[in-house]
Fold this sequence. Notes:
The structure holds 3 protein chains of 3 kinds.
Chain A: H1 6-21, H2 23-26, H3 35-58, H4 66-82, H5 87-109, H6 114-133, H7 137-140, E1 146-147, H8 155-159, E2 172-173, E3 176-177, H9 180-203, H10 205-215, H11 217-222, H12 228-252, E4 255-256, H13 263-276, H14 283-296, H15 303-309, H16 315-325, H17 333-347, H18 351-368, H19 372-379
Antiparallel strand pairs in A: 1-4, 2-3
Helix pairs in contact in A: 1-9, 3-9, 3-12, 3-13, 3-14, 4-5, 4-12, 5-6, 5-12, 9-10, 9-12, 13-14, 13-18, 18-19
Chain B: H1 11-26, E1 49-56, H2 63-80, E2 106-113, H3 118-130, E3 136-139, H4 143-156, E4 159-162, E5 179-181, H5 186-201, E6 206-212, H6 215-230, E7 234-241, H7 249-256, E8 262-266, H8 270-281, E9 288-289, E10 292-293, E11 295-300, H9 303-309, E12 317-320, H10 329-342, H11 348-367, H12 372-379, E13 383-384, E14 392-394, E15 401-402, E16 405-410, E17 421-427, H13 429-432
Parallel strand pairs in B: 1-2, 1-3, 3-4, 4-5, 6-7, 6-8, 8-11, 11-12
Antiparallel strand pairs in B: 9-10, 12-16, 13-14, 14-15, 16-17
Chain C: H1 5-17, H2 24-55, H3 62-80, E1 83-87, E2 97-101, H4 102-107, H5 109-116, H6 118-140, H7 150-172, E3 188-189, H8 191-194, E4 203-204, H9 205-227, H10 229-239, H11 241-246, H12 251-273, H13 283-298, H14 303-320, H15 323-328, H16 332-347
Antiparallel strand pairs in C: 1-2, 3-4
Helix pairs in contact in C: 2-9, 2-12, 2-13, 2-14, 3-6, 3-7, 3-12, 3-13, 6-12, 9-10, 10-12, 13-14, 13-16, 14-16
Amino acid sequence: MENGSATKDFITLLVFAVAILTMPIWMAPIGANYPDLLQRFAIYGIFAIGFNLLFGLTGYLSFGHAAFLGVGSYTAVWSFKLLSMNILPALLFSVLFTGLLAAVIGFVSLRRSGIYFAILTLAIAQMSYNLAYSVLTPITNGETGLQLRNYDVRIIDNLFGKVATEGIPSTNLFGITMSGYSGFYFSAVVLILCFWISLRIFRSPFGITLRGIKSNQKRMGYTGFNTRPYLLAVFIISGMYAGLAGGLLAVTDPLAGAERMEWTASGEVVLMTILGGLGTLSGPMIGAVVIKYFENIFSSIGDQRLLEIFSWAPDGLQHALAYVVSPFVGNGWQLTLGLLFVVIIIFLPGGLVSGFKRIFTKLKPIAKGVAKKEAKKEGADTGEAGT
Amino acid sequence: MSKIITSKWSRRDILKAGAASGIVAGMPMFYMKNAFAANYLNDPGSAAAVTFGFNVPQTGAYADEGADELRAYKLAVKHLNGEGDGGMIHTLKPMSLKGNGVLGKKVKYVTGDTQTKSDAARASAKRMIEKDGVTMVTGGSSSGVAIATQSLCQEAGVIFMAGLTHSNDTTGKDKRRNGFRHFFNAYMSAAALAPVLKKNYGTDRKAYHLTADYTWGWTQEASMVAFTEAIGWKTVATVKTPVGAGDFSQFITPILNSGADTLILNHYGKDMINSLTQAVQFGLRDKQVNGKDFVIIVPLYSRLMAQGAGDNIKGIFGSTNWHWSLPDAGTKAFVKSFGAEYGLPPSQAAQTCYVQTLLYADASERAGTFMPSEVIKQLEGFKFDGAGNGPTEYRAADHQCFKDVLVVKGKEKPSSQFDLLEIVEVTPRAKVEYKPDNKFFAGGKLGPANNGV
Amino acid sequence: MAAFQGRSCECTYSLIHYSPGLDVDAIFLQIINGLDKGAAYALIALGLTLVFGTLGVVNFAHGALFMLGAFTTVSTQALLTMSMKIRDTSITFFEAYKEVPYLQVWWGDTGKAIIDYAVPISLLLVIPVMLLIGLLMERGLIRHFYKRIPADQILMTFGLAIVLQEIIKANFGANPIPVPAPEIVAGSAQIGSWLGMSDAIVYPWWRLIYFLFSLLVIGAVFAFLQLTTFGMVVRAGMHNREMVGLLGINIERKFTIVFGLGAVVAGLAGAMYTPILPPDYNMGMNFLVLSFVVVVVGGMGSLGGAVIAGFLLGILQSFASMNQVNSIIPGIDQIIIYLVAILIILVRPRGLMGREGVMED
């Protein structure tokens, strides 16, 4: 993958785009083909891809990235409230504002590396969360979350005479309502764009420098190379990705809650990235889909639904199967998620993507009917998380 | 987990439902808006079943409460479908349900996990609305979640029947036309508690408030301050504590020599358990200040949570929406059928969820449709009795139920693990009622009903 | 905006009624409280930094170990209060049962007394149980991750933590479970009158015991590492693992024991904390962030640093929570720990007592 030529990259992008845009079709058999979840896949994909630019390329583990997600959402909702229900200014402000914030936070935290950097970002994010939940309630509306109201000013909308009738107007892109499938397709296009930018960064000299920093910052320092500007730049880009994702969350559902900034939310994006494949192009996206799928679908499988799923089995077996599976779904979905983490990290070092790769390399020779044994040997220890 | 076996769904029903959902899943992606030319969102049309969405916390701090709510919901569905002993269907008056489902349709349900987070709750509710086609979403164990879900349901165009939510805002500044709350609120708690406190502790008290630092805590505190000051109490200090602080000792030590003789804990859930346990450890209950015994008050009680505080709740006053030991027919019928099903008495959260489901079903039956605007008309101003709270009214102006409020006390000698609270007084509705434009509730508008099309 | 009402108006209440009597008594109380909190923080962080310093593993399951310790105590209590079910005739709606512990049935008041001492008794169980859990964890999982990147360690230990707490939830429910301290130490100590200060100064016996217990455990761990040959080898291993290995010492084996020790310390911290904080399955996660902050402020891998940082953060948090402080800087109690962490990491690059090169490449 590393020496991917332009054509190869184009194919990667094309495959990715097709896979994302056709999600409503191929997600149907697993019950994930409804707008809200598809939107979440796309949005958290952006979040994770952006996070991967920082963590995957440089090895700097930010444990406070959720703060950018939250701030992006708040900015977007305020833009809806004060300026316009059009999503472009909202997203623009989300990205710019989080970029600015990331510059400040990055400037402070990048003075340290390793776990000290992680704790600095964590501390800043937790401070934001705690304040948003309590003291900053006038700005954030605290626990309830910042909501749109009938009497919001919406200066730009009102300038153009779009006086709201009864009820709250919906977010739109020049008249196209951004809920449901249109919201998903919009997020998907943004996601593909973000993926492309990420691809370009991976391939650029900038990306190669960042990987250099990861593999040996000290040595680069000895050569008189100042790594800080590079790190700060990628930190800001990564923060803007998160801000964009936060803005999109508000676009598809105009409510911003403080819990988006809690450390567990930061932890979630770390897990998505590692689960999918740290430092890989598509890994973070896959991780985001897996975790959001568990959160939304596994959690909703109750007793009734289980019996439906096993309705193909004879009566006795049906109940037996449901009984065995029930601790792992519904209120036990987190148990399954935790087990998945442990199992994947033990058997597939480097995340899901490396697992797919291994299967691929194993299958290739089989398909060609040659040299099976060598492939097996090769697959054994490729802990290539950094590629 | 063993409850799976008790499901009365026949294999045929499930096969049919499975086939139906398979067909739906195979339909073009835009089926939601166009394929059915419906009058309202998720119109079951001529389908044999209607689906309700039960959105409760299944993970996180309120998971046990959520589990109890889910039990109540499942029981309600059974009773609606004419299974089991019918519970409150026989005691609720007026009642138009006949135990054959709603409008002749069998009631199905889907569940979701709110994780006690607004985001997750909305994601879960959206799944129910977009994927499972529910006509009504109900649930919640925290006001933030309830308010967030309520506004979502308003925007989407389905009915929201709030579960446990106690903040004034739910039917105050955040009220919505499509949302209804049966549970009582912070104002009612304070109004009901004040006279009892006056009778037991007199008019000369200095109160110190510890308050969970978020919207519910603030409305609770403001209500308690207003009502206790009206009976002559002084407020020494109101201190905000971070939610989920765990160790509250640094907030308790300043109470010791503050001159206060009363501690009011505006905490709920784990915060309440921890702060109460720790306050008792600091000897506050054995303390004498100004020649009076130091007392602690917990304005909102929950029996499930009281279990966590153990012996510390003994003798402590608080309020509750309902308690299983009430003697009326509705309570008895409900507790009997809940106890028979699960072997334990229902919590107040379970009761409010059960009643909400029945009320919605009944209103739909009377309306002859699940169309939100019509169901809303039936619920607004609806007067009923026999649901365990005495005569009750769903006030049209703010969609808040008005009914009696229970003032309770931690029992000194509990006879069993369920028998933790004793009812001190049933404060009549008139004493806790307020005008819709009361300053604690002003600022919101119900707005128009939304049918989602 | 209506949202403005909330906080601002209540602040005026406190200003009107509260005459800030920032007296010696109040400050004295906050100092004791800070030391008490600090001891708990230090104890929780100690195991984490021990494991990190020796094994170099970022253990996100440390909070879960703390929680498992607490639930060992809960289980002990449950064992001691195993009950005979007697039909409760006072409840007529359904079949309800009263529960009377067998111990009480068999031995009367002696049985009652044994149940009363559930927490101290449980400590006897906590040590072997946690040692076993620690050894199993290290041999079964952690060991395979020494050479893996920290990201893999994080995902694995985090996943493990989730699994452990979900198992606890499935067995004990999500609600906190009350675990009272023995009756004899249930109340408060009259510290004020002992010292000739105000009678209002009291402090719970159990918290004083926890404080002393923490000092004892911390002291024991230090003594173990400083005074025994085993400790000497481990300390050498912390500095240069390869070198010690080359000397022909089986450092792997030693590290396994260190991990077990870390688990025991976390477990003891959790078990003794149960009367202060009724345990629930999620308590570990709540302490996880805090313990990491303490460890990092102290300096990764530094035992002394963790202890000092624990006390520092405890005292600062205690003072920041005073109404007088909070009315000057609203919300300071919510962020003080993080604020201090940021400042210290910025001013002292490796925490208070950290060594160079730890977790930086």
